[in-house]
Write a structure and sequence with these properties.
The protein is of the alpha+beta class. The protein contains five helices and eleven strands, in the order ββββααβαββββββαα. Strand 2 and strand 3 form a beta hairpin. The protein is globular and about 45 Å long. The structure holds fe (ii) ion (FE2). The site of fe (ii) ion (FE2) has 6 residues, from loops. Fe (ii) ion binds next to loops.
């Protein structure tokens, strides 16, 4: 047995969909209730769907009974305030797990590299069922900010930088990629993140909106990349040393960040 996956992800592991006309919608994300959620970078989250419909953001596998990132339950207080965001998450017709709006404060390229992580969407996902991927709908207009994807965490040559203007829509196999957002600011970035189960419904949605697996990177100065690489190496070494001094092993993954 193996997981059901979208052919659209086979080559690169991500697709960029047609841009959505975000400016035509009300800014529902400003009306939501946000909760603090432990994450790298300065973030808050507004859950639209959670494990049991509570106003919280924990992975479904951390609940009792633990389960994979499917069958999220709508958080009534927030979906009442964001009917359009809920409808957009539902449009593919694919099973929805976690669904939330992230609020991310500005950071640096080096900080984003430090935050690179792989998601754990498919923990406890039964073999033979749909592989869970995640949709990112940028809500605020952050054309100079980028979703950074790396196949290899420490190799800048594998880096993909997808620009995040208002209405940018990406779907990413976030368990495959190391990913984080470089948000230049100055205002916070808001993005709807939805866990979807791969299958014919998601395939049709990707086709309808012309999912493109080939992003063209905006140029980035080699000096910025090298400085970012060096800063991350230094921060990780410092972190490992601090943990070793306390007699703890460093798994190198830090906290549980979200993009
Ligand atoms: Fe993530």
């Amino acid at each position: 047995m193996s997981y059901i996956r979208s052919a659209a992800f086979e080559e690169t592991g991500y697709v960029v969909l047609d841009r959505y006309d975000q400016a035509a919608d009300p800014q529902e994300w400003l009306d939501l209730e946000y909760v603090d959620w432990k994450s790298s970078g300065v973030t808050r989250f507004a859950p639209l769907a959670s494990a049991f419909g509570e106003m919280e953001c924990n992975g479904f596998w951390n609940h009792t009974p633990p389960r994979t990132d499917k069958d999220g339950v709508w958080v009534q207080a927030n979906v009442d305030r964001a009917p359009i965001l809920k409808a957009r998450a539902e449009e593919p017709g694919a099973n929805i797990g976690r669904c939330r709006v992230i609020e991310l404060q500005p950071n640096s390229y080096a900080n984003a590299l430090y935050n690179l992580h792989q998601d754990d969407n498919n923990r406890l996902n039964p073999d033979g069922t749909g592989w869970i991927v995640r949709g990112f709908f940028n809500l605020s207009d952050d054309a100079e900010s980028f979703m950074i994807l790396r196949e290899n965490r420490f190799d800048p040559d594998t880096e993909v930088r997808i620009a995040l203007p208002a209405g940018a829509q990406l779907i990413v196999d976030t368990q495959r990629f190391w990913h984080a957002v470089w948000h230049k600011g100055p205002e916070p970035r808001y993005c709807l993140i939805t866990s979807w189960t791969s299958g014919p419904e998601l395939d049709a949605y990707i086709e309808k909106y012309h999912g493109n697996p080939h992003n063209v990177n905006a140029p980035l100065d080699a000096k910025i990349i090298e400085e970012g690489q060096a800063e991350v190496r230094q921060r990780l070494a410092e972190r490992a040393a601090a943990l070793a001094a306390k007699g703890r092993h460093d798994d190198g993954f830090g906290e549980d960040p979200e993009a």
